[in-house]
User: Which sequence fits this backbone?
């Protein structure tokens, strides 16, 4: 945690009791943003005035004796693919530059109802397509732990904002690892909840069968509290699970005695840095010492996750991004006919990575190739679900690295396929719709390493119990103070 | 053997309403070929009897009561339009274009 920074639950308790004003909390975080944002570039827009006004309103309500909510006065940063009423939402794309949504995403409304205060919209890889936040039309975000390095992506701005102390919590979205990998790179906690647990109404779609919104935080407790606020059924999202969300915070201290933990063999070898696997084994030892049973388990089909993902996600993206046609919102480049206008607008508005994925997806879905690519990928998805199912008959949670390496240098990776390999450990979870989270556990050459905890659908409680145990056992360096 | 040709890339770009410069076509062809080549590792799998999964959570027939709820006003819906006229989105010529 950044020097002098407090956790979200501490801030909320103090604001609710009246011992600290939300205004002073917000001012402190805005000052930190002003100091370090030029070297980090976590934000596309800082909403300082709106944050101060919201803080004054929280203080007024506390003074009036109202229950302001579990995140009273807590600053939060929002990934810039979450719709915010009256505040520009760009997806870090020229095609949506300056677009002002006419409504709030459900998660944004729930945060406001819980007393949280948005301080701004964070940078991302354009349309959440990337693993480094270098694909932003508005320039890269830097890793606060070492500003020569990337923060990961695509939710790199949200991860960096929390690591730099700009806000104790933030929201990202995770389609193939876009919360967990940047959390690992920046040394913070990042959670991809069960598919359907958090409403996606107002999340700008990338790949609809994979996308999920989730928390970043400096502590496991803060992440659990934030997830409880945003989780739960929403009639505005037809994929939302129509059941009450699990209570998580009350189980954080339950310990791991008797829990069965499996280390995924296939994610501990080829392509993974030995220093990273060493941290995962140390994490497993710590869980064993805390009373869990730990064994290796084979989940063979996860090795095909990347292949299936890079057909399914682009296919869905090519369909979702067809809406950017210069007609109803976003960039329009004028031309003589509507078809020429659409071509000119999309050509000028999308960056190369987005174009690459739209074309890959269009190809995978096109006549003559559908069965060979998209159809086959959907079958591989079934195999991955089955292999996880078999593993979860014997284990409560699984353990793996979050990312194959620590944060790499800005500009180091040019080849798209090499960049995609960043997500080999995180993608299988999205294909299965399961929850998973990254917890900081030690370092390699001073850079944070994330350990991934995976669980079956709606297995958030055992997942968080294991995360809490890892946090308690993690070396002090895991959450070292930011030096930038 | 390459898995995607230059002509395929030109065709796909046209379907996706994207215009590519000549050098971009070459770059994208190489990159997409490498990605498809990596994805070809699934060819080793026997998938004949495996059903496809299109969605990770088994929800079917999500229904609601057929009642009018709040919607955006015409003004709000048009507020972000690049061009609007008489309460509608305005676009360039459509009729008379080749399909």
Assistant:
């Amino acid at each position: 945690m950044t020097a002098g920074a407090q956790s979200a639950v501490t801030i909320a308790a103090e604001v609710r009791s009246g011992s600290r004003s939300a205004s002073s909390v917000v001012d402190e975080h805005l000052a930190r943003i002003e100091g370090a944002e030029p070297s980090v570039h976590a934000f596309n827009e800082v909403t300082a005035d709106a944050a101060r006004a919201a803080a004054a309103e929280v203080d007024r309500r506390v003074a009036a004796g109202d229950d302001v909510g579990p995140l009273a006065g807590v600053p939060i940063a929002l990934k810039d693919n979450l719709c915010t009423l009256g505040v520009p939402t760009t997806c870090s794309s020229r095609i949506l530059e300056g677009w002002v949504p006419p409504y709030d995403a459900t998660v944004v409304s729930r945060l406001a109802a819980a007393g949280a205060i948005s301080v701004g919209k964070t940078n991302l890889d354009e349309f959440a397509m990337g693993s480094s936040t270098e694909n932003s039309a508005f320039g890269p975000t830097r890793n606060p732990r070492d500003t020569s390095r990337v923060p990961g992506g695509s939710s790199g701005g949200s991860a960096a904002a929390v690591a730099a102390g700009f806000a104790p919590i933030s929201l990202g979205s995770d389609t193939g690892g876009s919360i967990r990998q940047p959390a690992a790179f920046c040394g913070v906690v990042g959670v991809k909840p069960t598919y359907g647990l958090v409403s996606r109404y107002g999340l700008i779609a990338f790949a609809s069968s994979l996308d999920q919104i989730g928390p970043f935080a400096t502590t496991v407790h803060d992440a659990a509290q934030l997830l409880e606020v945003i989780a739960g059924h929403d009639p505005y999202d037809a994929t939302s699970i129509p059941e009450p969300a699990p209570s998580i915070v009350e189980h954080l201290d339950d310990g791991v005695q008797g829990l069965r933990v499996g280390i995924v063999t296939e994610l501990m070898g080829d392509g993974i840095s030995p220093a990273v696997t060493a941290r995962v084994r140390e994490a497993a030892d710590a869980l064993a010492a805390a009373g869990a049973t730990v064994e290796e388990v084979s989940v063979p089909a996860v090795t095909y996750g990347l292949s299936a993902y890079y057909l399914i996600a682009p296919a869905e993206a090519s369909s979702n991004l067809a809406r950017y046609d210069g007609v109803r919102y976003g960039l329009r480049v004028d031309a003589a006919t509507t078809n020429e206008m659409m071509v000119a607008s999309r050509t000028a508005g999308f960056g190369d990575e987005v174009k690459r994925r739209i074309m890959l997806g269009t190809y995978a879905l096109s006549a003559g190739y559908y069965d060979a690519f998209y159809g086959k990928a959907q079958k591989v998805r079934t195999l991955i679900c089955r292999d996880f199912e078999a593993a979860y008959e014997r284990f409560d949670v699984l353990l793996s690295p979050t990312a194959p390496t620590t944060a790499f240098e800005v500009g180091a990776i040019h080849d798209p396929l090499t960049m995609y390999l960043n997500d080999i450990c995180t993608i299988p979870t999205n294909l299965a719709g399961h929850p998973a989270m990254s917890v900081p556990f030690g370092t390699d050459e001073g850079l944070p390493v994330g350990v991934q905890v995976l669980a079956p659908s709606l297995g958030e409680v055992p997942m968080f119990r294991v995360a809490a145990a890892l946090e308690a056992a993690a070396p002090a360096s895991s959450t070292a103070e930011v030096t930038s | 053997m390459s898995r995607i040709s230059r002509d395929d890339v030109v065709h796909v770009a046209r379907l996706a309403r994207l215009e590519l410069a000549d050098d971009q076509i070459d770059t994208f062809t190489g990159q997409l070929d490498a990605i498809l080549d990596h994805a070809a590792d699934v060819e080793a799998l026997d998938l004949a009897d495996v059903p496809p999964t299109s969605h990770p959570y088994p929800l079917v027939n999500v229904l609601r009561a057929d009642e009018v709820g709040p919607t955006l006003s015409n003004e709000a819906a048009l507020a972000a339009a690049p061009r609007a006229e008489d309460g509608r989105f305005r676009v360039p010529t459509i009729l008379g274009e080749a399909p």
Notes: Chain A touches chain B through 71 residues (CB under 8 Å). The two ends of chain A are 13 Å apart (CA to CA). Chain A has a mean pLDDT of 96.
